[in-house]
Design brief:
Layout (H helix, E strand, L loop, with lengths): L3 H5 L3 E2 L4 E2 L34 E3 L2 E9 L4 E3 L2 E4 L2 E12 L2 E4 L2 E4 L2 E7 L2 E3 L5 E4 L2 E4 L2 E7 L3 E2 L5 E4 L2 E4 L2 E3 L1 E4 L9 E4 L4 E4 L1 H4 L14 E2 L8 E2 L12 E5 L7 E6 L2 E7 L6 E5 L10 E4 L5
Parallel strand pairs: 1-3, 2-4, 3-7, 4-7, 5-8, 6-9, 7-10, 7-11, 8-12, 9-13, 10-14, 11-15, 12-16, 13-17, 14-18, 14-19, 17-20, 19-21
Antiparallel strand pairs: 22-23, 24-27, 25-26, 25-28
């Protein structure tokens, strides 16, 4: 654990894929709570203290959970003025405005990145995107494939970027998985191409990308992923289940095929949201949720 302020000022090199499952657990997210459930991850950088360093490594942050439907500057990074590269976010994110699967508001550079995060806004949301909510910076060699959903009154929302004011180069989004929104809600979509899933899992689609040193792909099976990452993105975060009746703040365990493999925390009303990544659960897996004794 560390503070948002320290992260925002840092130059960070990650050396492994990071499981953010703790973002479901209030005890692991700096004591941050929300009246009607867990708020999840605290975005790195905000409008008064943006992320201004470098963040790289060639690995992913997966099982990301953010539930802040009345908040602005929401994403793995809230506001970025620095340089983020060879980084990916996979999970579920909800917010009000300046909401993105990876970055809420980008004023810096984003290079060789991707998002398989499902992003949710509301009818009053604006600047909501699968990768970035509002882009006033540079995006190069990026893709998104998560579902983006907003209400009927939302403006400037897109499958890739909500509002683009500057530059997108060599980037793509999956038209089969992202929903009904255009790639860019408002602004220029030059440099961005939408493709069906089959094309997104074909190396030739990604013109100019470095598949020798940075990226790799299993044709017909995965989206592009980082050369040293063990996380192979097959589909976006895909399964979410909700249960009621647990003890407020209590632990709920999930067995997979008889083995205890994941723990969730009930919100203040005793509700539990179980979210599983496509790499964690197969079609024939048997899942059972249980509450341990004395919890």
């Amino acid at each position: 654990k560390t503070s948002n302020t320290v992260l925002a000022a840092g130059n960070i090199l990650i050396k492994a894929d990071l499981n953010a499952n703790g973002t479901y657990n209030v005890a692991d997210v700096w004591g941050t709570t929300k009246t009607n459930g867990l708020a999840g991850w605290v975005p790195v950088g905000d409008i008064s203290n943006p992320f201004a360093g470098t963040f790289t490594g060639g690995y992913v942050v997966y099982n990301l959970y953010i539930n802040r439907p009345s908040s602005s500057y929401v994403g793995l990074f809230g506001v970025n003025t620095g340089a983020i590269s060879q980084t990916a976010a996979i999970g579920n994110v909800s917010g009000l405005q300046y909401v993105g699967g990876l970055v809420g508001y980008n004023l810096g550079t984003l290079t060789n990145i991707y998002s398989l995060t499902n992003v949710t806004g509301s009818a009053s949301s604006f600047f909501v995107g699968g990768l970035v909510g509002l882009n006033n910076g540079l995006i190069t060699n990026a893709y998104s494939a998560g579902l983006v959903q907003v209400g009927g009154g939302s403006t400037s929302s897109g499958a890739f970027v909500g509002l683009n004011n500057v530059s997108i180069t060599g980037s793509y989004y999956d038209t089969s998985t992202s929903g009904s929104l255009p790639g860019v809600g408002t602004g220029s979509s030059s440099g961005l191409t939408g493709n069906a899933t089959a094309a997104m899992k074909t190396q030739a689609t990604f013109v100019g990308w470095d598949f020798t040193n940075i990226w790799q792909i299993i044709p017909g099976t995965t989206y592009p992923y980082f050369k040293f990452s063990t996380y192979q993105p097959i589909s976006p975060f895909f399964l979410t289940l909700t249960a009621t009746g647990a003890t407020a703040g209590g632990s709920v365990h999930v067995l997979k095929n008889g083995v205890d493999f994941k723990t969730f925390t009930a919100d203040g009303s005793g509700n539990v949201v179980f979210t599983f990544d496509s790499g964690e659960v197969a079609a024939n897996d048997n899942l059972i949720a249980f509450i341990p004794a004395n919890t």
